[in-house]
Design brief:
The chain contains 19 helices and 8 strands. By secondary structure, the chain is an alpha/beta fold. Strands 2-3-4-1-5 form a 5-stranded parallel sheet, sandwiched between helices. A 3-stranded mixed sheet has the order 6-8-7.
């Protein structure tokens, strides 16, 4: 069986690991922990292909503990119990270092099976996950572990791995393998921060570029084999929420170019629902009363996008995104309803004022008869002072007029009517 290139190139030292310099550069906490030789329980969290398994494998090589490895996608409770049983054997004399890949796929009971042995130190756990550990890992395991977040690797760092891969392949093949600088740069950039994906692309290009005199891989060949590998996106994972969060925050921040870029990420992934939903939310929440006419306009663009589908849906969505970015902003509506909800959750305002209640009769116990509701349309300017909020919050102010032209016009009108 052929071993994947990424496994054949596992680094021999911490300095050989590409990327993650904020964790592994000299003097950084994780590096100092590893070099101390006293390995605590660790959880490595981040996307695929960024060095989690590579670092765990390196730690396994330098420890004097028995090394065991399980994958959460295939591990059973019996597999875990087998590792626990080895603690009472000569093999487990110094304890066990367990590398548990994709721990998020283990259920709570399976994770609890390890808890006692993690706590007494007979098992040192190194777990990796592509999902947010605070959502998927049992709290008792988390409290006994230290979480380190791994980030996508920068293209310049991936380029080092690509150069090394080309050298190793040349040695293995016993012939000249040439990747142009443009081809290597494209692979390093198009892999979306995933080193494993870049190395797989190198191997694929090597096979496709074979010829009698050797191997030549140019930019055109690299593009044809890696053209769609740059979009890191998982509809159920952190990348999904990162992209849609950046999409909405870019619109809120009035950055047209960034908003269009993140829209393009959603379009390329085929995620029409998220593109539409966040766009409508942003129109209401972030533009809001500064330009309320934008809400039906954006809704119309979204309806068109949903009706025509991709690829044409990208056009009305782009139009709407640009409008939202360039429109004046106000979150006064969102702030007002949030403040009102806070009082509701605090249990305030339980009793609706008498004049607003839906009652058409008075009991004998009520001294003042009649509802006494004043109908605003019966008065000049269709307004008359009366109490609407409950007694305990009668003077509360939830809405504050924004500084934009539209809301200031509302303010001037009502200041005049109410003689403020």
């Amino acid at each position: 069986m052929n071993t994947p290139l990424a496994d054949r190139l596992r680094p021999e030292s911490l300095d050989d690991i590409v990327g993650q310099k904020e964790l592994l550069a000299p003097g950084r906490p994780l590096r100092k922990i590893i070099e101390s030789g006293h390995i605590p329980n660790l959880i490595f969290y981040g996307p695929s292909g960024v060095g989690k398994t590579t670092l765990a494998s390196y730690i396994a090589r330098i420890t004097n503990r028995s090394f065991k490895k399980l994958n959460g996608t295939t591990a059973s409770t019996a597999d875990i119990k087998e590792i626990v049983s080895s603690l009472n054997t000569f093999e487990g004399l110094n304890g066990v270092l367990l590398y548990l890949d994709e721990i998020q796929y283990l259920n709570k009971k399976q994770q609890q099976t390890l808890l006692e042995f993690i706590e007494n130190g007979s098992i040192t756990l190194i777990a990796s996950t592509t999902e947010n550990p605070y959502f998927y890992i049992y709290n008792a395991i988390l409290s006994r572990s230290t979480v380190f977040e791994f980030r996508p690797v920068e293209p310049d760092e991936i380029l080092k791995a690509v150069d090394r891969a080309v050298r190793v392949l040349s040695e293995e093949q016993g012939r000249e393998i040439v990747f142009t600088d443009e081809a290597k740069r494209h692979i390093s950039t198009a892999c979306g921060g995933d080193v494993r994906k870049a190395l797989n692309s190198v191997e694929l290009c090597m096979l496709a570029g074979s010829r009698e005199e050797g191997v030549l891989v140019d930019e055109e060949l690299a593009k044809s084999l890696t053209q769609r590998s740059g979009a890191r996106y998982d509809r159920d994972g952190d990348a999904h929420y990162d992209v849609i969060s950046a999409y909405q925050k870019s619109m809120r921040g009035s950055d047209v170019n960034a908003a269009l870029f993140y829209l393009a990420r959603l379009v390329e992934s085929g995620d029409l629902i998220s593109a539409c939903r966040r766009l409508v939310v942003c129109a209401c929440e972030d533009v809001g009363l500064a330009y309320p006419q934008i809400i039906p306009i954006v809704k119309s663009c979204v309806d068109i996008a949903m009706q025509v589908g991709f690829p044409e849906a990208r056009i009305p969505l782009a139009d709407a995104v640009i409008m939202v970015c360039l429109a004046p902003k106000s979150n006064s509506g969102e702030s007002a309803i949030s403040a009102a909800q806070a009082d509701v959750r605090a249990g305030l305002g339980q009793v609706v004022p008498r004049q607003l209640q839906n009652k058409h009769f008075d009991g004998e116990e009520r001294a003042q008869k009649g509802q006494n509701y004043l109908y605003p349309h019966s008065y000049p300017n269709h307004w008359i002072p009366q109490q609407y909020l409950p007694d305990d919050i009668r003077d509360k102010v939830y809405y504050e007029f924004g500084e934009n032209k539209t809301e200031q016009a509302y303010k001037a009108y009502w200041d005049k009517i109410k003689n403020l």
